[in-house]
From TrEMBL:
Recorded family membership: Belongs to the binding-protein-dependent transport system permease family.
Ranges that cross the membrane: 12-30, 100-121, 133-157, 177-195, 234-260, 280-306
Residues in ABC transmembrane type-1 domain copies: 96-299
Classification via PANTHER family: DIPEPTIDE TRANSPORT SYSTEM PERMEASE PROTEIN DPPB-RELATED
Protein location: Cell membrane
A matching Pfam family: BPD_transp_1
Name of the protein in its database record: ABC transporter permease
Species, as recorded: Kribbella turkmenica
Amino acid sequence: MLRFLARRLTGSAVALLVSSFGVFGAMYLAPGDPVSFLIGNRGSTPELRAALRSQYRLDDPFLERYWRWLGSAVQGQFGESLLQRQSVSGLISARLATTAWLVALAFIVAVAVGVCVGVAAGRWPRRLLDDAVSVAVSASIATPAFVSAVLLISLFAVGTGWFPVFGSGSGSVVGRLHHLALPAVSLAIGWWALIAQTTRASIRSELGKEHVETALARGLSSGQVFRRHVLRNALIPISTSGGLTLAGLIAGTAIVETAFQLDGVGGLLISAVSGRDFPVVQAVVLLLVVAFALVNTAVDVLYTVLDPRVRLGSAA
């Protein structure tokens, strides 16, 4: 197990190194000059531009800037925001809790709804239920997050007043959940369908296996057979879709946080991109890459827990 985990962590570290180079380089290929945004509407002189470039070390060789940035990033230091004149690490840490709450709540909603719907449609394949699930899945996949956000705000915030329109809440856990309920549902709408589809297909596939028929012939109840032989074997593809869902939720926070005016990392990324705030964009994108790598590693480890043959096959 330790050897398997070491190989996965090494592969993730290499992927992160390559991704960090791409993230840093892509920012300097983007159109626009950060010095122009620093100056703003003030009068620009060659001396002022040269002073700013020297202050932020924008004239240093590319590789030198990259290694300096990477060394600081490993220590959790990403420099200073060009627009807000604050520590990038401080800006991110102040908003990280909101994004973490939003992603966790949306993931719980997506998994709970997706697995329940998928198990029901897979275990009891009735025409009416199957058609209803297919329509709901298609509608959810076809609805972008910003559209569902507008609809939820109109119906349950402005229309009924049941939920707050904007803000992430503070203080008690109940208050935060109350503020993040609509954003979490909006974020999860497009992803529960993936889990439901995967769960339904996996359940039906396992129900048709020979060992399931054998277990039923031996006198085991249908509930025992479903729990021991069907659901357990179906968990591997379900966990795969769960990992994809978690990664997709992390990436989708930017749209939802902007729609609901949440003080999260995703909203910070949107404002930084609009203002060409390179240090903030680089830090947030690198943080997203790290999150994706951690999710993939966690899913690989979960595979070995659900099915030891995965580990044995990797070792061979």
